[in-house]
Amino acid sequence: MIPQTLNKITTLQEQRFLLPGHYTWEKFDKLEALTADAPGLRITYLDGCVEFMTLGEQHEIIKSILAILLETYFFEIGLNFIPVGSATRRAKEKGASFEPDESYYIGEKKENPDLAIEINITSGSIDKLEKYKRFQIPEVWFWENNQLSVYHLTNDNYEQIPESRFLPELDISLLARCVLMPSIIEARTEFIKGIRQ
Q1: pLDDT per residue over 183-195, tens digit each?
Q2: How many of the other CB atoms lie within 10 Å of CB of 170?
Q3: pLDDT tens digits, residue range 10-24?
Q4: Most CB contacts within 10 A, which of 17, 161, 164, 180?
């Protein structure tokens, strides 16, 4: 007879931990090297603050479904894009290093992506928009509390806007609603139906 505990599957929840103190870029480099092989661990640096984050299953499900639906939209409207996922944005002179959950060049490749998406299941302690501003990423979407918030960089500051400047015809509330559907097949069907109307 198999013990009951072996039948249970445990998954990590997203967790964030801010290291106390101020870290130089060189100390951050060492920390990053020490944690390079740790699966499911992200490390963010901004002006001497270091934050570790574990990626839970809920985080990864939302990230993946959101990417599937958004890329479906790109294909449906015939918009050329280059997906670069969570490619690290890192520069000592900018005092920042981080990985968005998803990111895209719209049209052609540029110095930095046009759109970055971050999934926040638990609230972070490092300024969410400042790190993106350092790399002049024009648009950032945040998934928080089962909603999408869209921010656009204007005059070196982000302002929250009701719809994407890159994708003005995209119904953000439809996208968020479909991400939360229990069946990905039904979500994709509903989303395509909504964007074709």
Answers
A1: 999 999 999 999 9
A2: 17
A3: 455 678 888 888 999
A4: 164
Confidence of residue 128 (pLDDT cuts 50, 70, 90): confident
| Nearest-angstrom CA–CA distance, 65 and 62 | 5
Q: Which CATH number fits domain 55-196: 2.60.200, 2.40.128, 1.10.3470, 3.90.1570?
A: 3.90.1570
| CA trace torsion 93, 99, 102, 106 (10° rounding) | 10
Longest dimension (CA), the chain: 66
Cβ-count burial of 193 within 10 angstroms (0-12 exposed, 13-18 middle, 19+ buried)? exposed
